Amino acid sequence: MKSVLKTLELETKGELEIVDITEMVEAFVKETAIKNGLANIQSLHTTATVFVNENEPLLWKDFKNHFNKIASREQQYNHDDFQRRTVNLCEDECANGHSHCRAVNLPVNICLNVIENKLQLGQWQRILFIELDRPRKRRVQIQVLGE
Questions:
Q1: Residue 2, C-beta contacts closer than 8 angstroms, at least 6 positions apart
Q2: Residue 9, pLDDT above cutoff 90
Q3: What CATH number did the domain enclosing 9 receive?
Q4: What local confidence, expressed as pLDDT, does residue 86 receive?
Q5: Most buried among 17, 58, 131, 146, using CB within 10 Å?
Q6: DSSP-derived pairing of the beta strands 137-146 and 2-11
Q7: Quick one: CA dihedral 96, 97, 101, 106, positive or negative?
Q8: What's the confidence (pLDDT) of residue 93?
Q9: Residues of the domain holding 132
Q10: Which element (helix H / strand E) includes 62?
Q11: Residue 147: which residues within 8 A CB-CB, separation 6 or more?
């Protein structure tokens, strides 16, 4: 069995930005020359992730409204209390409990079939990356396994 890995570098512009990464993933799958196998697409972050859905602008607005309802910035989060919180603090730490709470509703990775060197997606399915926090540099890893 063959295994090929690639890391995509993204730079997001803002909270709840959605980026369609389907074409980047499809191009990499084709490069691997793996005829049949699996493609695993994984976010390397706790406040940004990947999922499969439609690339439809009105639906994306619905996603944003949904995330604002389930975990709004206005709520209070223990994670944001820097007087009490003592672990996993960075020099540029920001109040982002809402972003982590949004992330628990999405997978950290997706695994898709590769058949005849082609990623298998349904008619409207796209691979989407969503920034749940603030603008920053992000990484997504793609690992294709197969023969």
A1: 32, 34, 37, 145, 146, 147
A2: yes
A3: 2.60.120.460
A4: 86
A5: 131
A6: antiparallel
A7: positive
A8: 86
A9: 2-146
A10: helix 57-70
A11: 1, 2, 34, 35, 36, 37
Residue whose structure tokens are 């691997």: 32
For residues 112 and 121, the answer to whether their CB atoms sit within 8 Å is yes
pLDDT, one tens digit per residue, over 43-65 is 999 999 999 999 999 999 999 99
Closest C-alpha among 21, 1, 2 to residue 11: 21
The stretch 32-48 carries a mean pLDDT of 98
What total number of domains does the chain contain?
Answer: 1
| Distance in angstroms (rounded) separating the CA atoms of residues 122 and 27 | 17
Q: Which residue has the tokens 């910035």?
A: 73
The structure tokens listed for 109 are 């990775």
Query: Are the C-beta atoms of residues 133 and 14 closer than 8 Å to each other?
Result: no
Residue 92 pLDDT > 90, yes or no? no
Upper half-sphere CA count for residue 131 (Cβ side, 13 Å): 17
